[in-house]
C-alpha cells in the first residue's frame, strides 16, 4: 500500500446515469457530486473532460464497456480515484500501463463486484476460511434473471458473449473471493442464444481447486441465486440475494457414518446492503492508499477473453 495522509471529504463524479449510475449517485448521498452523461436529462455535464479537474477527487464510472478504458486513463492520469462498473476487459498490455500510471499519480482503481458484500456470501467466506466444511468436494452456482428482452433492446448490452460476461463475471469474482482465481479457466458445457443475439443461457465449469459448476441465464422469470458447497465435513447452501429477498444461508454438519446432519440456518429480509458497503470499501481503499483490484480484473478478463475466442473466434 502507498501511504496517504488524511483527506477532506471526497468530491465525486458519476459518469453514466443509467441504472447503475443512478444507484451510485444515491449512495454518495450528501457528499459533493456532479453527474455526467451525453444523453440523460438533468445532468451537470455531457463529458467527463468538461468537469474541472480541480473540482473532483473520484469517479464512479457507469458507462458502456467501450468507453471505459479511455475514461479511466483520463481520470487516473489526473490522479483521480476510479470505481468502474464490472466488467473491465482490456488488452493485457493496457492493465500494466494503467497500473503504472496509477502508481505514478497515487490513484486507486477499483472494479466493482458488489456481491462480495452480500451478507451470506461474506459469511461463506468466513466458513470456508475456518475449515468447517473440510475438504471441498463440489461447488455449484446458479445465477439468473429475466432480463433477456430488456438486454435485446440495448445496442451495447446484447453483444459478445452476453450473459457469460454479464452474470458470469460476478461468479468468477465470487470464486476469487472464496478461493482465488489465478490460472483458472472456463470449460464450456453449453452456451445458447434463445432470445437474444448474444448468449442468454450458459452452463460451464470453472477449472481449478475446487472446480465450480455454474449456470448463468437471462431466462429465469424470477431472479434467483443458488449456491451449494459440499465438503468432507459438511455443506453450505445459499438461496437468493438480499435485493430479491428473503435470502437464506444453511450450514449442515456431516454425521458419520450417515444420518440427518446438524443444521443451522439464517434468513434475512432486508434492503440490498451491498451498494453502501462497497462504497465504504472504496473509500477505505482510497484512505489506505491501496492500489485497488486491477489484478483480479485482469484475471477475470483473461478468462472471458479465452471464452470469447473459443465461442466467437478471435476478435
Automatic annotation (TrEMBL):
Coiled coil: none annotated. Residues 45-113 form the Gfo/Idh/MocA-like oxidoreductase N-terminal domain. SUPFAM superfamilies: Glyceraldehyde-3-phosphate dehydrogenase-like, C-terminal domain, NAD(P)-binding Rossmann-fold domains. GO terms for molecular function: nucleotide binding; oxidoreductase activity. Keywords: Oxidoreductase. Residues 122-236 form the GFO/IDH/MocA-like oxidoreductase domain. PANTHER family: CONSERVED EXPRESSED OXIDOREDUCTASE (EUROFUNG), CONSERVED EXPRESSED OXIDOREDUCTASE (EUROFUNG)-RELATED. Belongs to the Gfo/Idh/MocA family. This is Unannotated protein.
Amino acid at each position: 500500500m502507498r501511504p496517504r495522509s488524511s483527506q477532506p471529504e471526497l468530491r465525486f463524479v458519476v459518469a453514466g446515469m443509467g441504472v447503475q449510475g443512478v444507484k451510485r449517485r444515491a449512495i454518495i448521498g450528501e457528499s459533493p457530486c456532479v453527474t455526467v452523461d451525453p444523453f440523460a436529462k438533468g445532468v451537470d455535464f455531457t463529458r467527463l473532460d468538461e468537469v474541472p479537474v480541480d473540482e473532483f477527487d473520484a469517479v464512479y464510472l457507469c458507462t458502456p464497456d467501450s468507453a471505459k478504458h479511455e475514461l479511466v486513463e483520463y481520470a487516473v492520469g489526473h490522479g483521480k480515484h476510479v470505481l468502474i462498473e464490472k466488467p473491465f476487459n482490456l488488452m493485457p498490455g493496457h492493465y500494466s500501463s494503467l497500473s503504472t500510471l496509477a502508481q505514478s499519480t497515487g490513484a486507486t482503481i477499483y472494479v466493482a463486484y458488489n456481491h462480495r458484500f452480500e451478507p451470506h456470501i461474506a459469511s461463506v467466506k468466513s466458513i470456508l476460511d475456518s475449515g468447517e466444511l473440510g475438504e471441498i468436494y463440489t461447488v455449484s452456482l446458479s445465477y439468473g434473471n429475466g432480463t433477456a428482452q430488456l438486454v435485446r433492446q440495448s445496442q451495447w448490452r446484447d453483444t459478445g458473449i452476453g450473459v457469460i460476461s454479464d452474470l458470469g463475471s460476478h461468479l468468477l469474482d465470487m470464486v476469487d473471493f472464496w478461493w482465488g482465481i489465478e490460472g483458472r479457466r472456463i470449460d464450456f458445457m453449453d452456451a445458447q442464444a434463445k432470445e437474444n443475439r448474444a448468449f442468454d443461457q450458459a452452463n460451464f465449469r470453472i477449472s481449478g481447486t475446487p472446480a465450480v459448476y455454474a449456470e448463468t441465464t437471462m431466462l429465469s422469470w424470477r431472479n434467483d441465486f443458488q449456491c451449494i458447497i459440499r465438503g468432507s465435513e459438511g455443506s453450505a447452501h445459499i438461496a437468493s440475494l438480499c435485493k430479491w429477498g428473503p435470502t437464506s444461508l444453511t450450514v449442515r454438519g456431516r454425521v458419520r457414518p450417515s444420518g440427518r446432519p446438524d443444521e443451522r440456518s439464517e434468513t434475512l429480509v432486508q434492503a440490498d446492503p451491498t451498494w453502501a458497503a462497497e462504497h465504504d470499501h472504496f473509500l477505505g481503499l482510497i484512505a489506505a492508499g491501496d492500489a485497488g483490484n486491477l489484478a483480479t480484473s485482469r484475471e477475470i478478463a483473461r478468462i472471458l477473453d479465452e471464452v470469447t475466442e473459443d465461442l466467437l473466434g478471435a476478435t
